[in-house]
Write a structure and sequence with these properties.
The chain is mainly β. It is 14% helix and 42% strand. The chain contains 10 helices and 59 strands. The strands form 13 sheets. Strands 1, 23, 24, 25, 26, 47 and 48 form a 7-stranded mixed sheet that branches. Strands 53, 54, 55, 56, 57, 58 and 59 form a 7-stranded antiparallel sheet that branches. A hairpin with a 5-residue loop joins β29 and β30.
Amino acid sequence: MRRIIKTGIFIIIFLLSAIVTFILTDKEARETKVAMSKAVFPIISFNYGEKKVNYLHGYEEEKKLSNVRGPVIAADNAELSFNIQDGDMIINKVKYEIVSLDMKKTYDSGEVKNFTSGKSANNLKLNKLKLKDKNKEYGLVIELVSNDESIWYYSRVTASNSGCDKILKFAGDFSNAALAHDRIDGFDVSYYLESDVNSNNYNNSYGYVDIKSSYEMVKWGNLDVKLKNTPEYYISEINDYYVTIDMDFIVELNEKNYEVKEYYRVKYVNGTYYLLSYDRIMNSIYTNKTTSVSDKTIDLGVVNDDIDFRSNGTGTIVSFVQNASLYSYNSKNSTLYNVFSFSDSDDYEPREDCKDHSIKILSMDEVGNIDFVVSGYMNRGIHEGESGIAVYRFDIELNYVEERAFINSTKSYPLLKKSQGELLYLNNLGDLYIVFENTLYKISLYTEKIDVVMENINDDCYVVNSNEGLIAWHKSNSKYNETNIEVYDMESEKSYEINASDSQKIMAIGFIGSDFIYGTANDSDIITTAGGEVIFAMCQLDILNNSQNIKNYARPGAYITEALLNGEGINIKLSTKTPDGGYVEAATDSIVNSQNKDDENDTRATLSAYQDETLLSNKKIVLSQKPEKERISIETPKVISSVVTEINLEKKQDKEIYTTYKGKEALVSTASPAIAIKEAAINSGVVVDSKLNYIFKKGAKPNEAEVEDINLITNHSSSLGNCIAMILAQKHVDDSDVDELISQGKSGHDILSEKLNKKVYDLSGCDINTVLYFVNQGYPVMAMTDSSNVVLITAYTPYKVTILDPNKNQSYTLSMESADNTFKEVGNVFLAVL
């Protein structure tokens, strides 16, 4: 009997062991963990004269050109030459396609003939490419086939040269002459500059110089700067007016290495070069080898960008992002952790040194565990060739970094950076909050459950403070017609609402620390100008902390027409009403943030800036105490990626998005063409729509232009009605109901959009020189000269603009200066139909 019982117990134990083993094995199979592998995909470069240009990194799945854009290359004589290099996989075939930018048409396709199987190849030829329209950009897709896998590379290509080969040489000569302190025969750097003693960058720092800087600053003064590698060239624009080039290289100064980025916009006409835009940014390359801790200070060197930085409460552990890598330093044991980096060497070669990603620290606890995200192109590892947002956790005790989630994206890094919005926040419950493509998501990192908190939020209808985990949004998603705002705390996952009183509207302004600021305007004080611009004249600002009102601001007889947060408080623009119902600026004021006062008991490490004797702007971290050991230990944690379910948050975009590019960098991606165009005008960039059609190119207009088939009309009851009628008549559209539509309260923007079924661009905020680009394209520009009078701009020369003024029943010219002043006085309110 005992033997039977013992046998039965053995069988039960065996079965339980088998079940447990199965469960553990199954769990392990679903959560396979692998260390980050070395890069495998090759890169592609194009040959242009003696230079290799436009290095392309491959994607493991097909993309839309509109989500990548990429550089542009001129196919001289319908021919291209390119190279495959620095990969670690056997390529069997190389295919190509020439397509329209929307990828709906294929103009040419085939297989590269002079390629034999291998890991690399030079001078591969694409001959007799079918590029029929010289002034048109096409898409170039190159597919590398390795057994059953394919890798895709994307670029733009044009038949237009515009002296691109000569401009590439000019950029190289300019840079070399500056490095040689202008001692290259036959090249005078100073000849091309527009040095301005009144410019902020005239004689400020070698870390950032531009075309207005002094000659001494541009040619590196007396600094002994030496070129360390072969510069990388990236051509972003080729048109009839200029070529735009980014140039990246490494220099050595005082036995330290620096990353230098130069931007050129150059015009070449009849043997003469015109430098239209130039800037140079210099940043220290921070590595384990260059780490220096003196006394209580970690010197980060020359840093022009904002640094993401965290300190624990005692100021003994800090984490910071430098050169797209994440570091952590513990002064208790004098250990530097190279937490995360895609770079696997110090060779500064294009394959290894890809920085098409950014790192954001989400949180760091008292002992140094760090939650962080890596956004952009994944240069190596399990996600090599993908674009997305990887969520990681650094465990300081186990000394490894583990992936917790991966959000996949079809967009390249420049666009992904703009799509993910300002908000990334991880709370203590393991919920990741992210605004992605105008939707607020909550993603559980434990269950992978995805909740939509708020969707289709307009860019101008929400404000965030990522550090505090706070967001507020307009509940009806209307910027100027809102009666209800919700403020949400992502840590507690609780919210409160603010409601407007009768006959009033409210607007979210932003957060200062944990304080929320909003403004209130009476309905009667909110006006829409004839051009369609809304002036939200507020009677009061309120500051709340956790729903409790702690301060309000109002000035009798004045209206708050602008309230901007500046980090130190609020800058306020006060206006008064004019007799005709408009507003005119009367004064400025400010509210100082009381939360910014130094806490004497705060022992956290701090980040500060200083300038050294060589006019280089540096940053340093000041710890709360000296390291306990002088010698620094270096640790490189193992990066572990789990084979987790990839999260996809992307959805079809219904609204048009306008993206501003300066070189290869996307500055703005927005639904507002005016914001995008203004950004391009300031930064010498271009604006494209969702299909990569050009909307605006800074400086791409001739010296004079005139709109055709536009005639003066004066038979309507207002200048707005007459200007609308003139535009409709140019398009041969009936204008008989214009006055009735205006009487119904419709704006010029609304009427023109409805009747023409075309894109109407509100260009308010842009200056006169910017809007003249559209006159050159053949479109009259509607403009306001005061709070009620509307005119059309129809022509320009280098010194004058032509105005059609229905109120005066005449056409006349204004000097460029006079026109600029006239339009500026009423806020630069412009409207154009494309």
